[in-house]
Design brief:
The complex is a heterodimer of chains A (about 280) and B (about 260).
Chain A (H helix, E strand, L loop, with lengths): L1 H6 L3 H23 L32 H37 L1 H16 L2 H12 L3 H12 L1 H14 L3 H8 L4 H18 L2 H17 L10 H9 L7 H27 L2 H5 L1
Helix pairs in contact in A: 2-3, 2-12, 3-4, 3-6, 3-7, 3-9, 3-10, 4-7, 5-6, 6-10, 7-9, 8-9, 10-11, 10-12, 11-12
Chain B lengths: L5 E12 L2 E13 L4 E5 L6 H8 L7 E6 L2 E2 L5 H7 L3 E4 L13 H11 L8 H11 L16 H13 L5 E5 L7 H18 L2 E5 L3 H7 L2 E6 L2 E7 H6 L4 H8 L2 H6 L2
Parallel strand pairs in B: 3-8, 3-9, 6-7, 7-8
Antiparallel strand pairs in B: 1-2, 1-4, 4-5, 9-10
Helix pairs in contact in B: 3-4, 3-5, 5-6
The chains are: A mainly alpha (about 280), B alpha/beta (about 260).
The complex binds adenosine-5'-diphosphate and magnesium ion (MG).
The site of magnesium ion has 3 residues of chain B, from helix 1.
Chain lengths: ~280, ~260
């Protein structure tokens, strides 16, 4: 309770939480408010916003409802952002724990692999991966995670290196616990807080990467995405700039909201203390 | 005399300090008989904890031999070593850092029973309750988190965990040093009771000669990783021969007062 109170003390955290709440509400409500196919034609093409109140944000080049697309796009952004971040945190935590706990050759090999992944710009990695495997939601999630797990891996490894010297790890060895059980049951959960503190940055980056992939036409073609909407709008940028501006604003607000709320959580929890 | 539970010979471990190797433990030999308490005494940094970690295979020695229950303990590895550990336990100084901060009392006591297959899943809660009662705690304490209970209770839980697998030897590294004087007396009494009833031997590490005189049969006094002197505990403390032994006795005021 007091933690919740501390979270809502900074205005940034409140703003972040509000934006996130709105985003989640949009994502959840999308199939209820706009039950049909958001990619179906709903009215005349290129209707400007605020003209027809059944189509509040107007229509795009093909006459599709921009509001419906925006809501369904929130769904994609959120799903991809969260799934990719979860996958990146999971891979990073496992790799970092194995490297830090095993030490020696295992550590050496895993950290070289981490180095290699970190050297390649993560967006190029995602681009290459989707181009080869083909665009679908799962592949996009995997592609983004592929470029995002190295940060969590490094943080997890550093934390594990300090935890593995603690008495309770020695105690676990003394009672004959199997090394993998020590690593994943005794050490990993206690190494997680600083790793999870990275999640807001990773979710924000994942949402941006997904938008960029969609913008380049490498998103899942069966789903509405904000990146895809911006790309669509580009063709009529002079005559109907709102088609790019509306999803652009949604994207910026979302990334800002995720980041602010994440900072608020870190600030209000013990995570900050264990980081310093 | 019975065959020793633990026989250590010519044990050595070097660390590096400022680029130079220095001996943390240097040519140390001793043995412990069944149900015997051997104390390791010495100033801070004299190598007591390093010896504890070496004999328990938490770190590996440069040279030396460790024989546990008549077999070469250094030759064991993997599953064989883990199985053998049931007989050779340890209690740490700080009872808080000795446990996973997320653990409950029940989990801490469940682990050794599960790992060594000493009781079925349905049987373990009863065994845990019995262990808690064995060390003078209420069975209801099992549901509590480790960080919720007092330091003295925690050290009792640590002892319960150590005796769960019916060991023949327990290393106690400053196991009572962090406790209040009154709690310390109770824990020492518990250790003595357990030793008498279950015939457990102790490698009792302490810098406090007063405590050592109260519980140990024999004492080994260390200085900078080497054995300075050893012998029957009361005799050594009453009349130390080495310079470090004399200094340790002089630094323990309770001993001076009670000496005739
Ligand atoms: N992992 C290590 N690396 C380097 N030096 C160490 C390490 N562990 C212990 N030492 C050194 O070895 C000596 C003995 O330490 P220790 O066995 O902990 O002493 P004690 O328990 O008697 O206080 C000390 O000088 C200590 O600094
Ligand atoms: Mg020590």
């Amino acid at each position: 309770m007091s933690r919740l109170w501390r979270f809502f003390r900074t205005p940034e955290a409140i703003a972040g939480a509000l934006i996130l709440a709105l985003l989640v509400a949009m994502a959840v409500a999308a199939p209820l408010i706009f039950p049909g196919d958001p990619q179906a034609i709903a009215g005349p093409a290129l209707l400007p916003p605020f003209q027809d109140w059944s189509l509040p944000l107007g229509t795009d080049r093909l006459g599709r409802d921009v509001t419906a697309e925006l809501f369904h796009g929130a769904r994609t952004s959120l799903a991809v952002g969260l799934a990719a971040a979860a996958a990146a945190l999971f891979i990073g935590a496992v790799v970092g724990t194995l490297a830090g706990f095993a030490g020696g050759l295992v550590d050496e090999v895993l950290m070289r692999v981490t180095d290699a992944f970190q050297t390649v710009p993560s967006f190029l990695l995602a681009l290459a991966f989707v181009s080869i495997v083909g665009p679908s939601l799962g592949v996009v999630v995997g592609a983004i995670a592929l470029g995002a797990w190295t940060g969590p891996a490094r943080v997890a490894r550093a934390e594990v290196l300090s935890i593995r010297e603690r008495d309770y790890v020695a105690g676990a060895r003394v009672i004959g616990m199997y090394p993998l059980e020590i690593a994943f049951r005794e050490v990993l959960p206690n190494a997680l807080p600083p790793v999870l503190a990275l999640s807001s940055v990773i979710v924000a980056a994942a949402i941006l990467t997904e938008a960029a992939l969609s913008f380049l036409g490498l998103g899942d073609p069966n789903r509405v995405t904000w990146g895809g909407m911006i790309a669509e709008g580009r063709a009529v940028l002079r005559t109907a700039p709102f088609l790019s501006i509306v999803p652009g604003i949604a994207l910026v607000l979302t990334v800002l909201g995720v980041y602010l709320a994440g900072e608020g959580v870190v600030e209000s929890s013990a995570v900050r203390r264990s980081l310093s | 005399m019975n065959a020793p539970v633990l026989a250590v010979s010519n044990l050595a471990k070097h660390y590096r300090r400022g680029g130079q190797p220095f001996p943390a433990v240097d040519d140390v030999s001793f043995s412990i008989g069944p149900a015997e308490t051997l104390a390791l005494a010495g100033p801070s940094g004299s190598g007591k904890s390093t010896i504890a970690r070496l004999v328990l295979r938490l770190i590996e020695p440069d040279v030396g031999r460790v024989e546990f229950e008549g077999a070469d303990f250094l030759a064991l590895s993997g599953a064989a070593l883990r199985a053998r550990r049931a007989r050779f336990q340890m209690v740490f100084q700080d009872p808080l850092s000795a446990f996973n901060p997320r653990a409950t009392v029940a989990r801490v006591l469940d682990d050794p029973l599960r790992i060594h297959g000493l009781a079925s899943r349905t049987e373990r809660p009863r065994r845990i309750a019995a262990l808690l009662e064995r060390v003078g705690l209420e069975a209801g304490l099992a549901v509590r988190a480790i960080h919720e209970i007092s330091g003295g209770q925690r050290q009792r839980v640590a002892i319960a965990r150590a005796i769960a697998t019916r060991p023949s030897l327990i290393v106690l590294d400053e196991a009572v040093s962090a406790l209040d004087v009154s709690v310390r007396g109770q824990i020492l009494k518990l250790l003595l009771d357990l030793q008498r009833q279950e015939r457990i031997a102790y490698l009792f590490i302490s810098h406090d000669l007063g405590v050592i005189r109260a519980v140990a049969h024999r004492v080994v006094i260390l200085d900078a990783g080497r054995i300075a002197e050893s012998g029957e505990a009361r005799a050594v403390i009453a009349n130390p021969q080495s310079a470090i032994g004399k200094a340790l006795v002089a630094a323990t005021p309770r001993l001076n007062r009670t000496r005739p």
